[in-house]
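step: validate -> pass
step: tokenize input -> pass
step: predict -> running
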Amino acid sequence: MHIRKISMILAFSFILSAASVAFAQETKTTGENVSGLSVKAKSAVLMEPSTGKIVYEFNPDEKLPPASVTKVMTLLLVYEALEQGKIGLDEIVTISEYAAGMGGSQVYLEPGEQQTVRDLIKCIAIPSANDAAVAMAEYVAGSEEAFVMSMNKRAEELGMQSTHFVNACGLDAEGHLTSAKDIAIMSKELINKYPEVLELTSIWMDSIVHKTARGESEFGLTNTNKLLKAYSGANGLKTGSTGKAGYCVSATAKRDDMMLIAVIMGSDSGPIRFNEARKLLDYGFANYTLSVGDPAGTDKGQIKVNKGELDSVKIVVKDQVNVLMDKGNHIELESQIDVLDSINAPVTAGTKVGEIIYLSDGKEAGRSDLVCADDVHKANIGHMVKKLSKRWFE
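step: predict -> pass
step: emit ->
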């Protein structure tokens, strides 16, 4: 009898264990995590970009075709080339036969047609034009192949461990893969470094002028991101869909001072893609808030300068610190300063002399360097005599 009871207990334990495993597997395939949020997609990520904190993820590292969401990286490299002075917005790009031959989403550029960099960027950002993306890739790097090498190098620099690009536009190709987490990372980099891109990605309708041998004709551009018309605060960023990728989006929205990035990969339809992105954004705005530290350049007093033309120099906050907080446990940030007693001349503006540390409920939540605001040259004999004379008479 005793042995029979033990057997029954073991059998019951096995049933419970199997049920637990089955439940865990069911939860995973329906896209749920500890938040209880269910997402109809192959993978998904919700990130706050100023901190880089991920507040929801489902299969975040699964390698999947990204379709035209690829163009987030294409835009990042184009904006970096602009910043570095390699290209200019008003420069003229002559469209190659290869770029004009791109299928899928396009603005029907023709071989030999000329467009400005400015307008081609607009064609990438608003209607997600493959021909414009490849034309810009060729213009920046000389060829799409060279541009793709730069895309993969930049992905590696950003820590995008699940990414390999094969082209600049996102058309299905063997080995052209990334992940929801990596898309969030490159989206964060783009909007943090070049927030002006959101001025383009938030445009609903615009136009360009085709300039060909047959003359000029206006061509309308309509944004592929339907959230712009359906979600409060939506301002970008990139959609994509192909046969292999399904329906994808990296959706950005801003309310008050907080921006969010919702990445959806592998949805079954366009409406589902946008609905699931909306669901993630709603979750983020409902449950999180952004606490902001002192802005960059905030005056934090002075530090003594030894043997300098000046006796002291102003110190300022180098970078603003943002802290993402759960609304249910929101505690105001406190700060404390740790700074050197003095610094020896010569002093260069930007020299680190301390740190400002932000605390939440007594625990460190972030920190920023404190730096010298100005140069201070080393005092020469004349300056030293003046200082000694001033001190003497005082």
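step: describe -> The chain has eleven helices and 17 strands.
step: cleanup -> pass
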